[in-house]
Please model this.
Amino acid sequence: MIPAAYIEIAVILLGVVVLMFGTFSPGTDTRVIALISAFGLLAIFVATFYVAPMPAATTGGFWSFYAADTTALVFKRVMLATTVFVLLMTIDYVPVVRQYLGNSTTQRGLGEFFTLPIFTCAGLMYLVSAVDLVMIFVSLELVTISFYVLISLTRRNPTTLEAGVKYLVLSAMSTGFIVYGITWIFGVTGQTNLQKIGDALSSGGTNQSAALLGLLLTLVGLGFKIAAVPFQIWVPDVYQGAPTPVTAFLSVGSKAAGFVVLLRVLQPFLILHNVGRLLIVIALLTLIYGNLAALPQSNLKRLLGYSSIAHAGYLLIGVACFDGRAVTFYLIAYLLMTLLSFAVLVIVAQQTGEQIDNFDGLSQRSPFLAFAMLVSMASLAGVPLTAGFFGKFLIFMAAIAQHQVALIVAGAIGVACGFYYYLKVVRAMYWQRAANMDRIPVSGVSRLAMIVLMIGIVWLGVYPRPILNALNAKDRPVMLSGSANH
Amino acid sequence: MLLLITLSPLIGALLILFGAPARRTALIAAGVALAATVLAFSQFRGNSGFNFVTSLPIAPQFHLSFTLGVDGLSLLMVLLAAIVTMAAVWFAGTVERSESAYYICLLLISGGTIGAFASLDLFFFYAFHELALIPTFLLIGIWGTGNRSAAAWKVTIYLGLGSFVLLIGLIMLYQSLPAASRTFDIRQLKTLAPQISPVAQQNIFLVLLIGFGSLISLFPFHSWAPEAYASAPAPAAMLHAGVLKKFGLYGLLRLALPLLPAGVQHWTWLLIVLLLGNIIYIGLATIAQRRLDWMLGYSSVMHMGYIFLGIATANVLGTTGAAALMFAHGLSIALLFAIAGEVRKRTGTLVFEDLGGLAKVMPLAGLAFGFGSFAAIGLPGFANFAAEIMVFFSSFHRGWEIGRFHMFQWATLLALWGVVISAVYMLRAYRATFMGSMPDRWKDILDLKQSLRLPLVLLIGGLLWFGFFPQTLVRVVSPAFKASLTIPAP
Model:
C-alpha cells in the first residue's frame, strides 16, 4: 500500500521534470513531452488503486487539513484521468498554440502548455482532499492561478486575451468572497476545520445568522467555480476564448473540484435553516438559464459553455437533495462525455471552425469523428444506455425521493431543451452537406483516446455496477444525510 | 433464446457499423430474430408465468438488473416486432445515401423495441425504448420527405419530453414502495403493489398516462404522429407506427393495470374522454386529409382509441382484445405504409387529386393495399375484426345494468361510429389511389418486385391467420391477464 500523500507529490515531481525537460532541451518533439506527461499521470492513476484510504488526523497540524477518504480517492482518479485526456488533446492543439506564440520553429513556450495542466491537476487533487477551509483556499488558488496562465496562453489571439482578463478579474473577485466568507465563519465558530465547525454549530451558542452569511459568501465564490447562476456570466466568453483543451479542463476539472468542495463545505451547515431552500433556488435558476440560453447558440464552444451551466444545474439538483453518490456519478459521466466532445472539437475546429455550421457533413468527411460526437451528444442529452442517462436517472431519483416538484419540472424543461440543442449538432453532422468534402485526418493517439471515452460512456450507461460499488464503500463523509433514502 | 432475439438486431447494427454489407447483414439479423421468435412461440408455455428468463444484476443496491423474460403478452409483441422488422428491412431496398447508416438506424429501432418488450426490469424497459429516439431523428431528418426537418424536430422533442415524464412516473412507482422492498423487477413489483397507497396510485397513474400517452399519440398529445409518419421513409414509418408506438400501450397493460388498480379506476373517466377524442375527433380529421401519407398517419392515431378502450375496460376480455388489436394494427398499418412508400417511390406524389387508377399498373400493390385497408376497417376474417369485437363486447358489458347506460356503454356506442368513419376514409383512399382513371405519365410504372411478395405474405398471412383462428392468439395472451387484473367495475 502506498501512503496517500505520495500521490500528489508524485504529480508535482512529474510536473517539475516536464518543466525542466521543456526548458533545457527545447528541441524535443512536443509529442514526446506530452506523451511522457500523459503516461506519467497514467502510472499515477494506476497507483491510486494501491493507496490506503487515510482519514484526516484529529490531532492538528498539516494532516488534519488533508483527508484521503474514498470520495477523495475517487475524485483524485477523476482529476488524473481528466488531465491525461487534456494532455492528449493538447497534442492536436499544438499548431494553433504555435501560430499565436508567433514562432513556428522553436518549441519555446510550449513547455508550460504541458506542465501547467499537471500542476493544476495537483491543485485539484489537493482540493478534493481538503477538509479545512485554509487548505481549501490554498489549493483553490493553486488551481486558479494555473488557469490564469493556461487560459491566456495564446495571448496574441484577441478573444483569448479577453477571456484571460475576464477570468482573472472575476476569479480574483470570487476568491475575495471566499476569503471573506471564511473569515465570517471563523469569526463565528473559531474554527477552520469543517468537522469542528459542524460541532461548533450544532452545539448551540453560535450566532447562526452570521454563520449563514459566511456560508453565503463562500457559496458566491464556489458558485463561480461551478458556474451556477447568477455567477455564470464569465462562462460563455471564457469558454469560447480559451484554448480548447483548456476549456475542456476548465469545464470538467474545475467544476468537479468545485462540487466536491461544495459538498464538503455544506455538510456542517445543513443544520442551519434555509440552506436547503437556497440551494433549490440556485439549482432552479441554473437549470433554466443554462438550458434556455443554450438554445440559440451557433458556436459549438459557446454552446458547450452554456451546456456546462445546464449540467451544473442538474448537479445542483443532486446537491439540493443531498445525494453525494448521484452527484459523483453524474460528474464522472459528465467528464467522459464533455471530454469526448471537446476532443472532437479540437480536431474539427482546426480544419473548419468552431461554428456548428462548420460540422456540416462531418459524417462524410470523417465517419469516426461524427460517430464520436454523436455518442457524446446523445450522452449529454441523456439518451438511455449512455453514462449521461444513468447520471440523470440517479439525480432525478433523488429529486423524486424528496418530492422536489419544482426541480423536477425545471429538469423536464431542461431535458427537452437539451434534446434540441445537442441534436442540432447531430443534424449538422448527418443531414447537412459540406461544401468541402476533404477527409479530416485523425491521429492514432486521439483515435485511441476517443475510443476509450466512448467505451467508458457506453459501459457506464449499460453496466454501472463497478462504479456504483466503488461509491458505496463504508466511509463516505461527503455523502450527505439524505442518501440513506435509497 | 430471448437474448438472441433481442441482441440479433443490435449485433447486426454493430456489424454494419464495422463494415459488413448493410442490406445482407440487416436481412440476416432480422431473419434470425424472426426465426428465433417463432421458435420461442412454439415452445412457449402459457400458464407458467414468465418464460425464458435470464438475469444479470446491474446495480444491486437499487435492485436493478438486466432481466429478460416473456409472458404471452410480451411474446406476442416480440412476434409483432420481429415480423414488422423483417418486412421493413425487406422493403427498405437500396438506399441512395449512406446505406449502412440507414440500416443501422432501422435495426436499432427494432432492437430497442424488442428489448423493451422482453425486459422484466423497469430501467431497461425504459432504456431500450429510448434507444429508438435518435435513429428516428436521423431517419426522418436524413431520408425523410416533405417538411422533414420540422417533423424530425417535432417528433424528437415530443417523444423526448414524453419519455422524460414517463421516467418520472416510473421512478415514482419505484419510490412509492417502502425503502426496504424497492425493486425495479416487474415480477416482484406485482406482488408488492398492494402496498402502494391509493392516492399514490392515482398520482403515478396520471403521470404514466401522460408519459405513455404522448408516446402512443393519445389525444391531445398526438400532433407529432401524422407529421412524423408522413415525412419518415416507409420502413421507419412501418416500424414506428407498427411497433414502437405499441410500447406505450404495452406499458399501460404491463404496469398500470396490474400495479395501480386504484389509479386506473380513479382516472377511467379521463381515459374514456381522451380516447373518444382519438376515435371521433381524429377520425373526422382523418377524413379531411388530402394526402395518403397524412391520412395513414392520422388513421394510426385514431386506431389507438380502440386499443385504449380495451385497456380502459380492465378486464380479461377487453385487455386480451386490446393486445390482439395492437398486434393486428401493427401488421395492417405496416402493410399500408409499405405500399404507400412504394407508390411514392414510383409516382413522386401522394396527393389524392394527382393519384388514381394505379391498380392497372400495380395490381399486386393494389391487392395488398386492399387487404390492408379492409383489415384496418375491421372486416371479418382479419385479426382486426376479432380484436375489435372483443374490445366492443367487453366494453359494452363493463358495468352493465339493465335499462341504464353508464360511461362505458356510451363510450362503446360512440366508438362504434369510429368503424364507419374508418370505412369512409379507407375506402376513399383506396378509390383515389388505385381506382378511377390513371394519368398517362404513369403508364410505364412497374409493379412491386416479385421478391417483395414474401414480406407481403408475412404481413397479410399474419392478419388472416389470427383473423380466422383468433383462439391461437387468445390462448397465449389471456393467461397473462387472468392472474393480474383486480379492478372492480365502476
DSSP finds 19 helices and no strands in chain A. Residues 474-486 of chain A have pLDDT under 50 and may be disordered. Chain A has two domains: 1-176+236-264, 284-486. The radius of gyration of chain A is 21 Å.
